[in-house]
# Entry
Amino acid sequence: MTTTESRSRPRWLYLMAAIVGIWMTAPPLVVIPMSFASERTLTFPPTGYSLRWYQEFFENPVWIDALRSSLMIAVLVMVISVVIGTLGAFAVVRGRFRGRGVLETVGIAPLVVPVVVLGIGVYAMFLRWGLIGTVPGFVAAHCVLAVPYVMITVGSALRVVDHQLERAAQLLGARPHRVFLRVTLPLIAPGMMAGGLFAFVTSFDEVVVSLFIVSPGLRTLPVEMYSSVTRDINPTIAAASTLILLVSTVLILISTKFLFSSSANGRSKR
Amino acid sequence: MLKLAQQTTRRLRGIPLAIPLLVLLVVFFAIPVLELVRRSFLDADGALTMQSYGDFLGTPAYRTILFRTFFVAVICTAACLLFAYPYAYLMTLAGPRLRRALLVLVLLPFWTSLMVRTYAWLVLLQDTGPIKAVLAAIGLEQVHLIRNTTGVVIGMAQILLPFMVLPLYNNLQKIERSDLLAAQSLGATPVRAFWRVYFPQSLPGLFAGSVLVFILALGFYITPVILGSPQNSMMSQLIVRQVTERLDWASGGAMAVVLAVLTLIFVSLMSRVVNVQQAFGGTGGKQ
# Structure
């Protein structure tokens, strides 16, 4: 038994996986030493170390304002797209109307259409509607990209909900809204949490559409990083990157919890 | 009459729930995209014309960019496939802990900010960077890793790999490994058993992942701007230039329409074989 096992898992598979692992994880880590560089440099590794770029990040209103706008927009996007996406998932999974399948496909269309196409289209309309550089404009544009993820996660959570549980609650005398709040909602909550997390990250990380709809008064963190990379490369971007890495690590740790609880369910079903 | 009304309500059950979604998609997705389509058919005086499409397809420089976009997408797909297949295969063989670690590793980039990754690649691939130093040490001074298609592919393939691994893994984990043993007990060599028995069963996942990576690659913008050069632009860069620098909405719109239509053709191709939503669901981390 052991021999077949080891024969079926050749060494080169591990080597390949190791290469992929390094390729996936190592590159972003270079931003950490870069952020502590003492000079205005793009050389890696830096020659001396300091905290001046963190100071720059926290003291320069441009960066801090961008961070604040990004966080505010991402939280709004998370809340709104969880609501819209959950309702949409209910319509698609539980609804009984013609065009359900079409709605399901249209719901994920924003993920498939090249983002630049959406970006310049939104730019054209926002110029006319006066939404350039406004919080509602950003939130709406980001929601278009975030809602599909919520629909996918909540939709798949909803599909595995056992109807018997809802029926049992109903038979025991619970009214429909109570069945929903006490039975259905807790069952799909992990899907909603995961969807919300994706929505947050989608908005917090969005560059392309944002580039078109920024104004000098309202810029998001990724846009600020983009202009830093394309104009003058200033190590402040490394400090910003390190802080973002820190935040996303926390988010990953949270998400793996959902991920593995749900995938464990999936596995036991097979 | 009452029956008819009942039937209608039944047929519409659930529609009100979809209204917020429909409003969002119509106002902030359909209208903007249709506005681009409309502008692509107008000339400078607002008259209806196909001129922009003719100009796009008739200009060799633009055709080159279109071909380059396809070329880069194909290379990225091939690179992802080359790395993702063994990776996903190992995931099916691994014990629960290793599998979990492999899954987290491949999902990490999905969580890492695009700008952070692109900036990191810029640092690593630049001409004075560490990778270049290694290449120079082994006598490859002439190889440039940035401001060209090589850099774009390295950066893009890293971003796209998870989109290949997840659909593939989804598929591979369903294949019965006993099929391989059966083939071997009937006299096939392990390699032959793999190619004749295992590999054909993995084709749906392979196809789903490849088309997904391919269509996503067609639409990349940030990575080619930062790791590539204007001389090596891809379609997205061209579209943005037409609109923001030349203020030529008709031409930019026509290019956007061509890119979107080509993408949708590949999506519909994929949807014949696999559930598109599931393919994306895989990237959503739900298995």
About this structure: Chain B touches chain A through 93 residues (CB under 8 Å).
